[in-house]
Amino acid sequence: MTEPIICELSSPGRSTGYITKSDVPEKDLADLLPQAFLREELELPELTEREVAGHFIRLSQINYCVDAGFYPLGSCTMKYNPKVNDAVASLEGFTRLHPLQDEDTIQGALRLMYELQEYLCRISGLDTVSLQPAAGAHGELTGILVVRAYHRARGDAQRQIVLVPDSAHGTNPATAATSGHQVVNVKSNAEGEIDIDHLQAQLSDRVAALMLTIPNTLGLFNANILDVAKIVHDAGALLYCDGANMNAIVGQVKLADLGCDVMHFNLHKTFSTPHGGGGPGSGPVAVKESLAPFLPVPLVAKKATESGDRYFLDYDRPQSIGKVRSFYGNFGVLVRAYAYIRSIGEEGLRRVSENAVLNANYLMQLLKGAYYLPYDRTCMHEFVLSGKRQKAQGVRTLDIAKRLIDYGFHPPTVYFPLVVDEALMIEPTETETLQTLNSFANALLQIAEEAATDPEKVLTAPHHTVVGRLDEVTAARKPVLRWQPELERSQQWNNSTISS
Amino acid sequence: MNYVPNTDYDRSVMLSRIGVTSVDDLFNDLPAQVRHPTLGIPEPLSEIELTRLMSELAHDNGGTHEYALFLGAGAYNHFVPSIVRHIIGRSEFYTSYTPYQAEVSQGTLQSIFEFQTLVCQLMDMDVANASMYDGASAAAEAALLAHHATRRSKVLVAPTVHPDYLAVIRTYCTELGLTVDGRCDFDGCLNTGRVDPSIFSKAIAADTACVVIQHPNFFGCLEDVESLARAAHEAGALLIMIVDPISLGILKPPGTYSADVAVAEGQSLGNTLNFGGPYLGLFAAKQQFLRLVPGRIAGQAYDSEGRRGFVLTLQAREQHIRREKATSNICTNEALNALAALVYLSSMGRQGLRRVAEICLQKSHYAADRIASLRQYELVYPHPFFKEFVIRCPRSVAEVNRYLLEHKVIGGYDLGRFDPVLADCALFCVTEMNTKDEIDTLVQLLGELK
Hints:
The complex is a heterodimer.
Chain A: H1 29-32, H2 49-60, H3 83-89, H4 92-95, H5 107-124, E1 128-130, H6 136-153, E2 161-165, H7 171-178, E3 182-186, H8 196-202, E4 207-213, H9 225-234, E5 238-242, E6 262-264, H10 267-270, E7 285-287, E8 299-305, E9 308-314, H11 331-367, E10 383-386, H12 388-392, H13 397-406, E11 413-414, E12 423-426, H14 434-453, H15 455-459, H16 472-477, H17 485-499
Chain B: H1 8-18, H2 47-59, E1 68-69, H3 82-88, H4 91-94, H5 106-123, E2 127-128, H6 135-150, E3 154-157, H7 163-174, E4 179-181, H8 186-192, H9 197-200, E5 208-215, H10 225-234, E6 238-243, E7 261-265, E8 281-285, E9 298-302, E10 308-312, H11 319-322, H12 335-372, E11 378-379, E12 388-392, H13 397-406, E13 409-410, E14 413-414, E15 425-429, H14 436-448
Parallel strand pairs in B: 1-13, 3-4, 3-5, 5-6, 6-7
Antiparallel strand pairs in B: 2-8, 7-8, 9-10, 11-12, 12-15, 14-15
Helix pairs in contact in B: 3-12, 5-12, 6-7, 12-14
């Protein structure tokens, strides 16, 4: 059953009664603030806690999550989120800290951040890390602004072009544009790798950087990566690596050894922090020494004192691009990522990438007969199928995705990357069992069968969810983006007219 | 610890199906000369060892569980009802991702829709998005919206805006060729604690895309928003208001002042201090700017049987569709923090939020009156204020705060960090979480320091 909007549950006069008393003598409001500043109406819902709890628990029950089942959303790395990491992130010594407290009272927090910076340096092979960016795209923006500042400081301000492969995630070109760059696309070749000749032709003394996801969004590792890095560097440009797919290579290779100058991590992907329904994430940026002066302020630094190591926030960075957010980063996410790294250690990190890649290749083998596999080669942590055979039978990738819901699975990423027709992008992650992979494959094989024999079943899916497929076109054409009492009445009237 | 279920047997089954002999073979595309690096990450820890280590790190900090806190300046210690943690800790919200598949994500989608609704109610604005990274980045995105809407290139930021917000606005705007002016009548503002509209309005020119003000401002004072709004609109510039969402329990909302975009740090709404993050930015605008609003937006939709549901909508603004032509590069929102804010606003409700705001007002004025009555302490800006106020101290703020800290009190923000003129001034914050006893102790300790 669908759940009413919280405002529809409201009754005038109800309240949770959390806060009523003040233990200081109260004055008349009028004595404290001029009337002109005071609001008349405050239109918030009125409920008891019992109603609030019921509402949100019921909402939770119509939400799929990785704790409950397989969530093979390509490029999102929906791995299991270990519970101890949440437990330790909830310690009062972390949650009850104000960011502007005296440094004497935050040494533990700063040490954790300092060590996390160190670990990310060691994992990437790069020299300096800023933990500030709040998400992957925020990390991209920070990294590309650092690139811009670097070129400018070298008298190379004319480098205003950022090269982006056609298979890139949309945030890459958007980031380049948002940071004042012109975006030029680079083609992929028949193997799904970057087309070196096309890349070479685009390079000039006006190019600031190439943004490259490693492995790329097709789940493939550019075997020619060292050549790519070399010709980019020969042209005086920098290699920006989007770390969205680090789960494939963590511990297998350091990005710096591939020629990477600057990158961002996605702690919510590779380092298992919960995705929270779309955030908070965390997107730390790692750079080579030559780019370090431009990172946002502050960095967490350490100095030796008589009484031992002392951690501090270093604001003395005159060439910094400034600030990209308030304070120092999504600390609660950093705590979880730190705990994850410490709990599995170096051998655990390597085990992550090995099994992520193993699981993906195994699943790809099970599925490549029934679905078209545009790049038939060893994949990394994910692979991209095409639903074009099924499309010929009148069943689209979207239909396949919706039918998977009937089988109890979250669908993979669909229609991305754009370079594959009817794309299904599948990332199983390392935390899923062989049995889960087999059942998921069976479901997809059965759906392929249904597409051929009983397409109606697929076209009308999903069949058991709280709502069926929603009319997104009308939703965008006549947007209703908030609840309003008058609107709701007229809408209900409309619906009853339609159904009668 | 280990979260990988594959056994040696599983691996052998999988490898033989793939047709290779070892997992290493799957990595053959990686250049051999750089394979198998040593990282230098410490040995793995058991859960017992990890918990011990993390407890030690947490123990090396002292927060509001050990100290009385009178510090605000952008992050606030407000009451968080127990139900908030209970709801956001539900795996169904906590371990899901962006609601790409609406049919199995109605919980997240409806909560975003409700969040947008309550943000609009609180701010009296037409439309709101699903949230931004934090208040400062929301303000920066608002300035970019103004630039796109007006095609003008100057961003005028009141000197009474939080310095971090100004810094972030600069970072976001400068590379796009916009000029950011945050020094207009700077000295005047330091003297009076708020913007003088008659001086400030002269700086609003034909190329001014927007005027950014904060109300209550960085010093806690209320601004003459009406005059500033009029001046901005007369010059064809947008008014961007940065607000404190708790203050909106009693203060006139941005919509009443005809603000074009209203943004806020939403942390105060049900989110713990957490050493500065994750927080969330509230972002609301007038209807006419809807297509320029950055970030995710949920909208109402119906299925073929007339059942109401919710979807991510107006995605033609966003980076995954528009790529380099998107209104912003933002991809995620701060969904779980937004859910916390939603549960907070739902459970505090109309009466509760008003009462919290009243108590902040009462307690901060009680504290300010008592401190200002001490010899050698002075309330620097005697304007109306909400929960923060500036006190001039007889000694450096560093000295004062050190003394307070010895007595388990965290004092106000040292405004000498903002400007040397204010070297002996502290920005105090008092909320409903500060007891009368704490305030009286603070006053007594300050009185001991002459």
